[in-house]
Amino acid sequence: MKLFRFDQQVGRKIDRFDSVHATISRIVRTPDSVHIGCMHLDAGGVVGYHPAVAAQLFLVVSGEGWVRGEDDERVPISAGQAAFWTAGEGHESGTQTGMVALVIEGEGLEPENFMPSL
Q1: 33-88 pLDDT, tens per residue?
Q2: How far apart, in whole angstroms, are the C-alpha atoms of residue 88 and residue 90?
C-alpha cells in the first residue's frame, strides 16, 4: 500500500481568470488524457469565468457554493451535487463559505449515463 496527499497544502494556487482563494491538487492523469484533481475554494473563493479546455465534471464533496455556465445565472450547488460543462463552454464557480470539489476533465465524459439530473 502507498499513501498520498491531495489536500489544499499540496495544491497549487489558481490565480488565472481573476480567481481568488482557490487551489487545485492534482490527483491523476490517465493515458487517454483525462485529468482528475481536487479543487479547494476557501470562503469567498472564486474560479473566474473562462472556457472549459475539455469536458469538465465538477463534483462537490463538501461545502456549498454556486456555479454558472454561459449565462449570468449563478446556480446553487452543494455536497453530493455536480455540474458538467462541455468543451469550450464558459463557466465559473464560487462560494461564500468554502467548498471542495473533485474535477474530472477529458474527452468522452458522459455523466448523464450514470447520474440522475437535478
Answers
A1: 899 999 999 999 999 999 999 999 999 999 999 999 999 899 999 999 999 999 99
A2: 6
Domain coordinates in residue numbering, the chain: 13-37+49-54+65-108
Say whether pTM exceeds 0.90: yes
Q: Which residues contact 77 (CB under 8 A, 6 or more apart)?
A: 58, 60, 64, 65, 66, 67, 83, 93, 99
What lies within 8 Å, CB to CB, of 11 at 6+ separation is 23, 24, 25, 26, 38, 40
